[in-house]
Amino acid sequence: MSRTSRKVRRIVARVAMRPRRSVRAHMLLDDDLGLDTLDRLEIVVAAQNATGAFVQGENGWQTVGDVIAACRAAVIYGECHHGADT
User: Fold this and answer.
1) If we measure between CA atoms, which residue out of 46, 56, 45 comes closest to residue 11?
2) Between the CA of residue 3 and those of 22, 34, 35, 50, 55, what are the distances in Å?
3) Which pLDDT band, with edges at 50, 70 and 90, does 1 fall under?
4) Which of 16, 78, 3, 53 shows the shortest CA–CA distance to 64?
5) Tell me, what's the pLDDT at 23?
6) DSSP track, 20-77
7) pLDDT tens per residue across span 6-65
8) Measured between alpha carbons, how far is residue 22 from residues 65, 68, 81 in Å?
């Protein structure tokens, strides 16, 4: 399991008020975890703080795996973008 995956699962678990070990990538944010739009925004802010990258796409997220993929993409894009500026 990657560091990004662990961070995201920890963030989602905190927002959903569940144990981190119970949060899996296949879980639905709405149905399985009961998260709403405000919870998604809380995840975005926490993920941005944790990764240092601009995380977006929260309206299209269905599963915890979607959040993990968005964070990975943000980190990769941020590193590539940063490297292009220097």
Assistant:
1) 46
2) 17, 25, 23, 11, 16
3) low
4) 16
5) 96
6) GGG--TT-BTTTTT---HHHHHHHHHHHHHHHSS----GGG--BHHHHHHHHHHHHHH
7) 999 999 999 999 999 999 999 999 999 999 999 999 999 999 998 888 888 888 999 999
8) 14, 16, 35
